[in-house]
Amino acid sequence: MNKQDELKRAAAEAAYEHVRDGEYLGVGTGSTVNHFIDVLAERRPEISGCVSSSKATTERLRAAGFDVVDLNSSGALGVYIDGADEANEHLELIKGGGGALTREKIIAGAARTFVCMVDESKQVDLLGRFPLPVEVIEMARSSVARALVKLGGEPELRTGFISDNGHPILDVHNLEILNPIELEDAINALPGVVTVGLFARRPADVLIVGTPDGVQVSRRSA
Ligand code: 5RP
Asked: Into which CATH architecture does domain 3-124+201-219 fall?
C-alpha cells in the first residue's frame, strides 16, 4: 500500500466509528470508499443494509456480503460515508471525480449525518483547483458549457465517460470558488444541469483527514 492509500485507509478506519448497528448506511464511491468497504467487510457490523451511490460500490458491497437497497425502500438514512476531491475548512466539498456526484448528492441530502473521509492532499483553502464536475443532460452539453465559460470556468467534456444515470460530465477547470453556495446555486439553475459537484448547501457534518501524524477530525458547527 502506498503512503496516500495508508492515509485513506486510516481515515476509513476512523469513519467506521460512525457506523451504527440496526441502521441503513449510505456508502459513497471511490478509492477511499473502497478502503472503507474493506473495513466493513473485516468488522461486519449488524447494519440493516446499505444504500449505494454507484454501480461500482453496489457490486463491491454485495461481493462483501452486504445487502444493498434502494433509497426509496430504506426510509430515513442514518449515516452517509464518502470521500471527496477537495474539502475546505467549512467542510464544503468538491465531489464527482469518480462521476457519481448525482447519487452522492441525493444520499448526502437524505442522510442525518454525512461523514467525509479524505487524505490530507484533498484539504484546500479555496475550492476549485480540482476541476469541478457538472453532470448534464446530453442535449444541453454545449449550452451549459457556454454558460460555464461566462461564470469564469473552462469546461472540458469528460471523454469516454457516461454516468450511471446515462449522462455526460463536464469538468470545469480554473474556477476560483470564493462563494461556494452562490456558485452551486448559479450552476444548478442552468437548464440541463443535472447536478454540480459542489457540496456547499449540504456540506459534510464530519470531516476525517488522514495525515502522517494520525487522523484529524473536524465537525461542522450547527
Ligand atoms: C466520486 C467522488 C469521490 O468521493 C471522489 O472522487 C474521491 O475519490 P477518491 O476517494 O478515489 O480519492 O466524489 O464521485
From this structure: 3-Layer(aba) Sandwich (3.40)
Assess whether the C-beta atom of 100 lies below 6 angstroms from ligand 1.
yes
pTM: 0.96
Three-class SS of the chain: CCHHHHHHHHHHHHHHCCCCCCCEEEECCCHHHHHHHHHHHHHCCCCCEEEECCHHHHHHHHHCCCCECCHHHHCCEEEEEECCCEECCCCCEECCCCCCHHHHHHHHHHEEEEEEEEEHHHECCCECCCCEEEEECHHHHHHHHHHHHHCCCEEEECCCCCCCCCCCEEEEECCCECCHHHHHHHHHCCCCEEEECEECCCCCCEEEEEECCEEEEEECCC
Average pLDDT over residues 138-142: 98
Q: Examine the residue annotation and report whether 59 is marked as an active-site residue of this protein.
A: no
Q: Where are the domains of the chain?
A: 3-124+201-219, 132-194
How high is the pLDDT of residue 222? 67
Ligand 1 contacts CB of residue 171 (under 6 A): no
CATH level 3 topology of 132-194: Alpha-Beta Plaits (3.30.70)
Q: How far is the CA of 180 from the centre of ligand 1 (A)?
A: 19
